[in-house]
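Handout, section B. The chain below has 309 residues.
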Amino acid sequence: MTTAVSVVIETDSVHEYDNITFGDCLAAVARQSYPPALVQVIVVDGGKVPALEALVRRNFPNAIVLPLPGGTKFEQKNLGMDAATGEIVAFLDGDCAPPPTWLAAIVEGLAAAPPEVAGLQGITVLSDGFLSRELSALFYGPRRRGGELRASRLVTDNCAFRTAVLRRFRFEHAEFSTVVDTLFLRRLERAGYRVRVSDELRMAHSFPGATWDGLVWFFARAFGVGYYMVKARQVEPDLRGRALVRWGGLGWPLLALGKCVVDVRQVWENRRRVGARFTLALPATAVYELTLFLGGLAALLRIPPPRWA
């Protein structure tokens, strides 16, 4: 293998309650089976990790550390990919840990893919805890178009792209906490590219479990998805479903219902992939969709946007 890979790690996702720490994330990257000489590590420091540079240097003396105090997840990803020099850019969040074969699978998967495949979307699974597998299917389960390997959603804690393609795009509206990845994928598709789902790309994601932090983690994400679903359609003229948030948002219930149908189908399609129990996932999904609906109402009422990572 001679393909150089740039690994971009954002740190806005790091929290004190993580059971996969930023140190665990770096250690997992250091254990990759892919030749270290071909790996460029880029870490964006948003100010949430104490003594970050020293921690990074212990694992990767030649890593690039870029300061971006207070930067959002997607602002950090934009900065990191601007500094990338590898032929492939792999995205990883600071509260995640890939298995040792992660980079090798990325390189092999893109080498075997036709040129119109801009990147690969992997499978993210929450660390063990109450309903972790069910929430993995709900929050991170990939979607495919018509049963094909083509991804119809993007989860940016576990994905990789050809750098030559990536240079033409950015994560727009990077100040948003979510939906940015959806907009990014749509722009790729309009340019004639596609992203392939790869079951070989696995990622472990920190999960706070059935704790107060876990409840905040769950409801903040549900509320934020609804909020930014509406917000994105208010600023993007050609985003599907835009008409449903006009005229005071009278069509928002219909859009939220459509999202519910998509999410239930997503859980069903991914239940075996992540070991989820569908009957247990349904109540959690119902609570999620209700909270999502309230988040959309908040956007329509112009309540200040939520911020989470």
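Note. The chain has two domains: 5-205, 212-300. Compare this with the example in section A.
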